[in-house]
Amino acid sequence: MAARRTEPATARAAYGAAHVGVRAYLADLPAEVWVRPSVLAGWTVSDLGAHLVLVADSLTALAPAPRSTRPLSLGAYVASYPAAAEVLSERTRAAAGGPDRSPAQLLDALDERFAEAVRVLDGLGPGDPVVAARRGPIRLGDFLATRVVELVVHGDDLSRSCPDVDRPAVPPEAERLAVRVLLEALAERAPGRSLEVRVPPYAAVQCVPGPRHTRGTPPGVVETDPLTWLRLAAGRVSWADAREAVHASGARADLSPYLPLF
């Protein structure tokens, strides 16, 4: 099943709305919360905030790719994350600036990088060009969709790191796009039609090699809620630990060989 192309205007709107929600959340955090350890090993809440600066900064590095360039698929781009993990951690800690960099300074950096990202996106013009991103060529709409995934997943990381603070206001359109992107990445990693993975109310895909499903009830079904799916796909929770929140039936209804996606 070929993944559908992400409409750049839709992805850009979802990214902008998610940025506004997470940025407002960060602005309301008490100063003492920023120094807490986060749910990501070795990262503080401040490091998470600094990583969101890098998410915006990644857009400022975009440039048109040569006309004949073949773009990476969305799934292939997402699959490139693990190899860059250590470099991203180092860049995140550098952006955080240590204990001398205040929350206000991080927010200023986030605002500056986001404003520059908007300028770069405006300069790319209309359509869905192939752009040169830091981990390879990709269509603009697909790259923007990966930025939405970053904001939605790290917004949840922030919420779990600060359980005494209300969750970030991540808009439904951003959550929907993040769910769909990661389902399509799963279908690309495990092509087939023997299992249907459903994340209502947003999306479903068929995947996993085996008997082909054409009509009626699929031979296998996995169904879960959006938040559980995002945590599974991002490696925040294991398949074994999430089983109580997952309905799974059929001989091939075990996603543990394919997860996490990044």
Briefly say what this structure is.
49% of the residues lie in helices and 11% in strands. It has 262 residues and is of the alpha+beta class.
Task: Please describe the topology of this protein.
Elements: H1 8-28, H2 45-60, E1 63-64, H3 74-79, H4 85-96, H5 103-124, E2 130-133, E3 136-139, H6 140-161, H7 172-189, E4 195-199, E5 203-207, E6 221-224, H8 226-233, H9 239-242, E7 246-249
Parallel strand pairs: 4-6
Antiparallel strand pairs: 1-2, 2-3, 4-5, 6-7
Give a written overview of the molecule.
The strands form 2 sheets. The protein has a 4-stranded mixed β-sheet with strand order 5-4-6-7. A 3-stranded antiparallel β-sheet has the order 1-2-3. Helix 7 packs across helix 8. It starts with 7 loop residues before the first helix and ends in a 13-residue tail after the last strand. It is globular, with a radius of gyration of 19 Å. The mean pLDDT is 92. It has 2 domains: 8-173, Four Helix Bundle (Hemerythrin (Met), subunit A), CATH 1.20.120.450; 190-249, Nonspecific Lipid-transfer Protein, Chain A, CATH 3.30.1050.40. With 262 residues, it is an alpha+beta fold. Helix content is 49%, strand content 11%.
